[in-house]
Structures are given as structure tokens and as C-alpha cells.
Amino acid sequence: MSMTQELLKARTSLENNLRELLGVPVFLIEMDAFALPCGCGGVTINTRGLQLDDLEVFEEHILKYLTDTATSLDIEPSFLFARLIPGTAEIASINARVLCNSCYMDFGRGSGKQPRPDIYIMRFDRRK
Amino acid sequence: MKLYVPHIGHFEGLEELLAGSDNIYAVYMAGSPEYVGTGRTNLSTPKLDEIAQQTEYAHSKGVKMEIVLNSSCMGGQHLTPEGYRAIDWYFDKLNSIGIDSITVADPYLVEMLAKDYDMDVVVSVLSFVDTPQKAEFYEQLGATTIVVDPAVNRHFDKLEAIKDTVSCKLKLLVNEACLYQCPFRYAHFNFFSHANGPGPKPNVLDDYYYYKCLSLRIKDPQQIIKSPWIRPEDLKEYKHITDTFKIGGRTHFVNWILNNVEAYANERYDGNLMDLLDSIKDLKDTFYIPNRELDGAIEQWKKCDKVCHKCGYCKRLAEKVIHTYSGSGEDIRKIPLGSIGDRI
């Protein structure tokens, strides 16, 4: 399967899972694979209709779905997070990111689920 | 019937648009944001020479040209000596080009245009004219045409009162599809006006209002039905108010615009209503609403007193007709809304 076919399949599967879980036609408007100059890479999934309380209540399930999505795309699910519109309950995207050393240090220094107002961490695997 | 049709702003787009339909009475596009911004996002910012070339071309095809300068907030810049001079200079240039009409939202610009220029003065939907009293004020300021706030598209008593009160022309925006009684309306258009105006431009994280707008509909799809769009089939119910209708959609591809023109010109559309709606285009791959299944709904809306919690008509209608798409590409299915659920 080509990368785009993989992404299409993963987007549909994740969307269906979230809809079934939440009982709302949550819309995954776009799923993008990304590679950053710093060395980070992964996928970002732009969401519409997904909110922070959905995440807080169903985090265990959503984390599993996102882990499965990342794994299906051969992305190590070591850093999974949602990006919020700061000060609101709106989730702009959910992300699976393999951190470069520099970005790992940035996030590694922080603690808790929200190191920044726009980041809600679902999973952060600390390196030894 | 006179259809005002959005134009994305470059010459090739205009050629394609006018080649695609004989039902276009006028096209409208944004001007240059260096002078007065606009309350919507734009795909282009045509300079004066481009506007002149396109105006000449439109006129050669018998089509009128309207420039939209409907910033809902200019931060007071238009009231400064420098701001006034810049806007006055720009209006003068547009007048010389032969622009037929200018749409503005600020009452000051309405009066300024009416006093000093020959172009028709159109009051934007972003002036939020929703009562006969407001319409009267704008007419006194010199408005040639008022585009009525779509929020009252289904308040026939108000539309008729506005019609009876003023002698200027009225225009109805048919497919904006903003939320009915949207709480973000003023803030969102003010944000757009600054983002698409002379500057300084805000470096924003996200368009919060748009995210929220889509979220509300996803959580509660009846909001799509309540939104005061006018279906092509229902234009006949408005012809005692006006014969002039405006299609929204300056940021869409020409084929999307032409599909709308055909639907409204023929007063019929057999596809997904979502295809026609402007502001929620991102949800057209989420919701399927067979337009023809909404035949007759206008009869309820004509007598509706908008007390939704007592009535429930739109909620029932949404449950009956709205489907959600599941999957993607060729493997796409339509699922009735009821099976997805509604937490409201």
C-alpha cells in the first residue's frame, strides 16, 4: 500500500472509532504526515467537533485508538498529544510525534498533562 | 431575477465564470486590503489595474461589477486624516474605473460614497440590517441597496416590514449558512476584517470562531437546518420582497460557484444541500442532506415564531433527513444521523 493509501485508511478507521465512542459525528478533516527541520516526524490529525471533555472522559480509549493509528503507520507512539485552542475546550488536532533530541528536552523538562496552554499530553515515553 | 455571484478575483477566474453561465447579472469581488478590508477571507487582492481590466471584461459581457469593501472594523483608521485621504483616493479610482457598485459595512463609508460618488452604495450583510428601523437609517445615509442580514431570512414579517419601509433596493444572501443567532458573528467578522485589512495583521494561532462554529454543528446537527439559508426551490417565496439574490462564496473554486448559479437560476437542486452552503464548506464531506427532502419545510418556517424549545420542528427534520458520511473515497457510506447519536 502507498503512503497516501495508508493515511486514508488510518484516517477513516480513527474517525469511525471516535464516532462510535463519542456518539457524535466527529470529523477528522485532514491527516498529514510531517517531517520537521529539527528531526521530529509523525502525523497530525486535524479534528472538528472533538473537545477537551471528550478527551478527559474517554482518554484511555482515545489513547488506544491513537496508539493503534500511529503503529499502523509505523510511527513509534512515544509522544501522543492533542493541540488545543488555548483557553478553550476546542481540540484543533491530535498528534503522534517522534521527537528529536532537542524537542525531547523541551518537553522532557515539563511535567503534567499540559506543559503549555495549547498542549494536552496523552502519552510521553521518557527516555532512559 | 438578478443573481449577484462571487468572483475569486483574478482574470482567468472571471473568464471561466462568465463562460460558464448566462445567468449572472453581476459579479462581486474584494478590493485591495491596503485601503479598506473585507469581512471575509479572500483568495486574491486585485490591484487597481487588474480591477479595471476585469471590470471592462465584465461590462463587455453585459455583467455588472461590484467591489466589496465590507470591513466591519477598521480600528478607527478611516476616521483619521490619513485614513480618510487614502480611502477617498481609492474610491475615486474605483469610480473612474467604472465600478457599478460598492458594498460597505461602515455607516460612515455609506454616507461618504453616497455624497461624493456615482457608484451605487450597497449596505453589506455585515451592517446587520434586520429591522425596518435600521434599514431606514441606512437609506437616509444614502444606501442604494441593502443586503438584509440573513438572520432574518426566515422572519417574513421582518422582511416584509423592511420592504414596506424603504424604497431602496433589497438583496438577500441565500447561502451564507452561518448559525442562526450566531454568538460569534460580530467577533468573527471583526477578526476577519483585521486579518484581511490594511494591518497590522494579527498573528493568530487559530480561527477559534470557525472551530467553534463547526463543533456546534457536529455536536448538534439540527443547527444546520436552523441556519437561515434559502433553498433554490424556495426563492419563489421571496419574490414579493426582492428579485435580487446574492450567492456567497468568494473562496470557492469556479465550478462550485457555477453549480450554485445553476441551482439558483433554475430554482432547483437535486443533490446534497451542503454543496450549496458557503460558510460550512468543510462539513460537506461530513453531512449529506438530500435537498429535495426539504421540500415544503418553508411552509413551517414562514409561520415559525423561532421558539425552538417549544417547537422542535427543525430537530425532527434534521433527524429525518441528515445523514453522515462514513469512510472515504470510493468506500463511502451514508449513515442516518440517528444511528450516530445526538447528545444534546
How does this model look, in words?
The complex is a heterodimer of chains A (128) and B (344). Chain A is α+β, with helices and mostly antiparallel strands and 128 residues long. Chain A contains 4 helices and 5 strands, in the order H-E-E-H-H-E-E-H-E. Chain A has a 5-stranded antiparallel beta sheet with strand order 1-2-4-3-5, covered by helices on one side. Chain A is globular and about 35 Å long. An 8-stranded parallel β-barrel of chain B has the order 1-2-3-4-5-6-7-8, surrounded by 4 helices. Chain B starts with a strand and ends with a helix. In chain B, 39% of the residues lie in helices and 15% in strands. Chain B is α/β, with parallel strands linked by helices and 344 residues long. In chain B, helix 1 packs parallel to helix 2 (48-60), helix 1 (11-20) runs parallel beside helix 10 (254-266) and helix 5 packs parallel to helix 6 (156-165). The mean pLDDT of chain B is 94. Chain B has helices at 11-20, 48-60, 81-97, 107-116, 132-141, 156-165, 185-195, 208-219, 222-226, 254-266, 297-303, 308-311, 313-321, 337-340, and strands at residues 2-6, 26-30, 64-69, 101-104, 120-123, 145-148, 169-173, 244-246, 287-288, 323-328, 331-336. Chain B has one domain (2-271): TIM Barrel (Alpha-Beta Barrel), CATH 3.20.20.70. In chain B, helix 4 (107-116) links the parallel strand 4 and strand 5 (120-123). The A-B interface holds A 8, 11-12, 15-16, 19, 23-27, 29, 48-51, 85-86, 88, 90, 92, 118 and B 205-206, 208, 211-212, 214-215, 218-219, 221, 282-283, 285-287, 324, 326-329, 331, 337, 340-343. Chain A: It comes from Methanococcoides methylutens. Chain A: InterPro entries: Uncharacterised_MJ1658 (IPR020380).
